[in-house]
């Protein structure tokens, strides 16, 4: 039998697994059960959509068997199985879905992050086992195979015989060590607890033969041992459960199990709608920015279920771009199983659900801004830019949805404030919402243009990101108040005396200004007396709609 080598990256990962850098070893079971559940999903879906296949509901299950004497733990499923090629591709290399691209060596050193970030799935078995054996028969090929590995040394594969379609994974559990009591993973009560903790909502029964004591029938005084097969999980998917019965930990666990992120969610939403359209949804706002979020690679979308059956991994039509950071799922009885990607976009139900979710997310964020300011600011640090892009794109169409969710740095508060907060404390004589643009708060504070506005006691919003100004240009107004750059020609700050003085000074110095204009003829349009300067001798100001900062950006754009 030929021994094959793992692909290099898989080997690194296996080494990390075996060297136990992950503290919670028990999650290996969650990984294997979740793979089994995915495999059953696949065959279940096939049976539902292919008339030549018929299955009974009770044919779908996962069975966990512990054998203390032989120190083996077996996870058996009636899923779709794997062909030879699939075995090789899925278990010999890091699964595509795992997309493990080490960015640099330090990340490999700090294995915690990687494992949390990508989820290593199947390989987690090596945290608790010396030998892992996979026997699988694929629905497609009908031929069974045995795959075996003792870890980094590689794996073997051979033809095998197996009666039923499905997969059986047997772990040779490690001997107890100083740090870890591996025997636990052979103990039925311990296993039961782990299954309940991580896999309770799996839709298929997770069965175990449970041995218990009970009083003898003929003699109640004496106990007898008996064994019966029990279903350990409740099988109700978490999104169908009653909100009141669930804890934050349940939602966090589900987030981790689903691999929505490598962090913990900042916020979860459990939405249960039972009206013209019926659906259940669990949504999460991640705490951290996904590593590829602001790149082309990032794919937005929610998992879409039709009455409990997963029909799409990332349904993009359910989320607008400005909420693309939201993770989670939607399950609706009103969706057809056979709905195709193309049909989804036109689907009325999907559109209704999307609209509903959009409103719910917006309201949740608003609530957070109002009641949990610190959390909201954390959120905004991560995803605020996306909201601003949202205002900017679609020509301000999303203004109504998004304007109250924006925060900007304020000269007055020296922290982030909302537009509502700004406008509500505007003095009566203040006409505009003032803003100043620059690379950093520090640099904006040194701008001569801010002086006059600040001297009037008006608040200025500091825009340090390019998108800031583009976004408010699209909004044009907030609560009927126009935005105005502190470097714009007309600040709307009137002062009669200064005006008269300016006029006379302009007359007196006409010759000087004409001369200056002549010298600077290529660089400036006009040279004027400014009413705005206090301690600075001169400043440059923009006349039209476009501020100097914006002009800079526009000039950098490719034609
Ligand atoms: P992921 O589940 O994220 O794809 P895993 O490492 O957990 O990554 O699994 C790798 C792949 O191996 C799965 O995508 C699946 O194709 C295959 N696989 C694992 N376990 C099973 C199983 N019990 N039945 C069928 N296929 C499986
Ligand atoms: Mg998996």
TrEMBL record:
<dbReference type="GO" id="GO:0005524">
    <property type="term" value="F:ATP binding"/>
</dbReference>
<feature type="coiled-coil region">
    <location>
        <begin position="354"/>
        <end position="382"/>
    </location>
</feature>
<comment type="function">
    <text>Molecular chaperone. Has ATPase activity.</text>
</comment>
<dbReference type="InterPro" id="IPR020568">
    <property type="entry name" value="Ribosomal_Su5_D2-typ_SF"/>
</dbReference>
<dbReference type="InterPro" id="IPR020575">
    <property type="entry name" value="Hsp90_N"/>
</dbReference>
<keyword id="KW-0067">ATP-binding</keyword>
<dbReference type="InterPro" id="IPR001404">
    <property type="entry name" value="Hsp90_fam"/>
</dbReference>
<feature type="binding site">
    <location>
        <position position="35"/>
    </location>
    <ligand>
        <name>ATP</name>
    </ligand>
</feature>
<feature type="binding site">
    <location>
        <position position="167"/>
    </location>
    <ligand>
        <name>ATP</name>
    </ligand>
</feature>
<feature type="binding site">
    <location>
        <position position="77"/>
    </location>
    <ligand>
        <name>ATP</name>
    </ligand>
</feature>
<dbReference type="Pfam" id="PF13589">
    <property type="entry name" value="HATPase_c_3"/>
</dbReference>
<dbReference type="InterPro" id="IPR036890">
    <property type="entry name" value="HATPase_C_sf"/>
</dbReference>
<dbReference type="GO" id="GO:0140662">
    <property type="term" value="F:ATP-dependent protein folding chaperone"/>
</dbReference>
<feature type="binding site">
    <location>
        <position position="82"/>
    </location>
    <ligand>
        <name>ATP</name>
    </ligand>
</feature>
<keyword id="KW-0175">Coiled coil</keyword>
<feature type="domain" description="Histidine kinase/HSP90-like ATPase">
    <location>
        <begin position="24"/>
        <end position="177"/>
    </location>
</feature>
<keyword id="KW-0547">Nucleotide-binding</keyword>
<dbReference type="InterPro" id="IPR037196">
    <property type="entry name" value="HSP90_C"/>
</dbReference>
<keyword id="KW-0143">Chaperone</keyword>
<keyword id="KW-0963">Cytoplasm</keyword>
<dbReference type="InterPro" id="IPR003594">
    <property type="entry name" value="HATPase_dom"/>
</dbReference>
<dbReference type="GO" id="GO:0051082">
    <property type="term" value="F:unfolded protein binding"/>
</dbReference>
<comment type="similarity">
    <text>Belongs to the heat shock protein 90 family.</text>
</comment>
<feature type="binding site">
    <location>
        <position position="90"/>
    </location>
    <ligand>
        <name>ATP</name>
    </ligand>
</feature>
<feature type="binding site">
    <location>
        <begin position="117"/>
        <end position="122"/>
    </location>
    <ligand>
        <name>ATP</name>
    </ligand>
</feature>
<feature type="binding site">
    <location>
        <position position="341"/>
    </location>
    <ligand>
        <name>ATP</name>
    </ligand>
</feature>
<comment type="subunit">
    <text>Homodimer.</text>
</comment>
<dbReference type="Pfam" id="PF00183">
    <property type="entry name" value="HSP90"/>
</dbReference>
<feature type="region of interest" description="A; substrate-binding">
    <location>
        <begin position="1"/>
        <end position="341"/>
    </location>
</feature>
<dbReference type="GO" id="GO:0016887">
    <property type="term" value="F:ATP hydrolysis activity"/>
</dbReference>
<protein>
    <recommendedName>
        <fullName>Chaperone protein HtpG</fullName>
    </recommendedName>
</protein>
<keyword id="KW-0346">Stress response</keyword>
<dbReference type="GO" id="GO:0005737">
    <property type="term" value="C:cytoplasm"/>
</dbReference>
<feature type="binding site">
    <location>
        <position position="31"/>
    </location>
    <ligand>
        <name>ATP</name>
    </ligand>
</feature>
<feature type="binding site">
    <location>
        <begin position="97"/>
        <end position="98"/>
    </location>
    <ligand>
        <name>ATP</name>
    </ligand>
</feature>
<feature type="coiled-coil region">
    <location>
        <begin position="495"/>
        <end position="522"/>
    </location>
</feature>
């Amino acid at each position: 039998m030929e021994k094959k080598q793992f692909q290099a990256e898989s080997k690194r990962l296996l080494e990390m697994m075996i060297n136990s850098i992950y503290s919670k070893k028990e999650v290996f079971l969650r990984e294997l059960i979740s793979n089994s559940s995915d495999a059953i999903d696949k065959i279940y879906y096939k049976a539902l959509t292919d008339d030549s296949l018929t299955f009974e509901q009770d044919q779908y299950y996962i069975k966990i068997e512990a054998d203390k004497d032989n120190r083996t733990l077996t996870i058996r499923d009636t899923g779709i199985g794997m062909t030879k090629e699939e075995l090789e591709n899925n278990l010999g290399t890091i699964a595509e879905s795992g997309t493990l691209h080490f960015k640099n060596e330090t990340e490999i050193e700090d294995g915690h992050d990687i494992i949390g970030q990508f989820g290593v799935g199947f390989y987690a078995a090596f945290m608790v086992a010396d030998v892992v054996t996979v026997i699988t028969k694929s629905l497609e090929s009908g031929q069974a195979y045995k795959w075996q590995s003792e870890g980094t040394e590689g794996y073997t594969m051979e033809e095998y015989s197996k009666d039923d379609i499905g997969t059986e994974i047997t772990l040779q559990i490690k001997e107890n060590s100083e740090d870890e009591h591996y025997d636990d993973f052979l103990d039925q009560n311990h296993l039961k607890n782990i299954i309940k903790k991580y896999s309770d909502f799996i839709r298929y029964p997770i069965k175990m033969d449970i041995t218990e004591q009970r009083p003898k029938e003929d003699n109640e005084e004496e106990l007898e041992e008996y064994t019966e097969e029990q279903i350990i999980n409740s099988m109700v998917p978490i999104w169908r459960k009653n909100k009141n019965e669930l804890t934050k930990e349940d939602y966090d666990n589900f987030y981790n199990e689903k691999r929505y992120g490598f962090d913990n969610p900042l916020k979860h939403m459990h939405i249960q709608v039972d009206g013209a359209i019926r659906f259940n949804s669990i949504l999460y706002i991640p705490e951290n920015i996904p590593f590829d979020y602001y790149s082309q690679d990032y794919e937005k979308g929610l998992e879409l279920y039709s009455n409990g059956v997963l029909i799409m991994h990332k349904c993009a039509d359910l989320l607008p771009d400005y909420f693309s950071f939201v993770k989670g799922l939607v399950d609706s009885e009103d969706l057809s199983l056979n709905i195709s990607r193309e049909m989804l976009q036109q689907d009325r139900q999907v559109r209704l659900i999307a609209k509903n979710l959009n409103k719910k997310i917006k309201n949740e964020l608003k609530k957070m801004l109002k009641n949990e300011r610190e959390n909201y600011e954390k959120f905004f640090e991560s995803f605020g830019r996306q909201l601003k892009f949202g205002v900017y794109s679609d020509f301000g169409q999303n203004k109504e949805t998004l304007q109250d969710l924006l925060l900007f740095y304020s000269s007055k508060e020296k922290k982030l404030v909302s537009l509502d907060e700004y406008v509500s404390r505007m003095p009566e004589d203040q006409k505009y919402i003032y803003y100043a643009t620059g690379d950093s708060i520090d640099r904006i504070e040194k701008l001569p243009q801010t002086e006059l506005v600040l001297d009037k006691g008006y608040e200025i919003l500091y825009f340090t990101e390019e998108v800031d100004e583009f976004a408010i240009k699209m909004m044009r107004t907030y609560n009927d108040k126009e935005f105005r750059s502190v470097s714009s020609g007309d600040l709307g700050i009137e002062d009669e005396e200064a005006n008269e003085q300016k006029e006379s000074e302009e007359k007196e110095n006409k010759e000087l200004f004409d001369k200056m204009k002549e010298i600077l003829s290529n660089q400036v349009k006009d040279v004027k007396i400014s009413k705005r300067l206090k301690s600075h001798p001169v400043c440059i100001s923009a006349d039209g709609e476009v501020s100097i900062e914006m002009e800079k950006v526009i000039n950098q754009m490719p034609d």
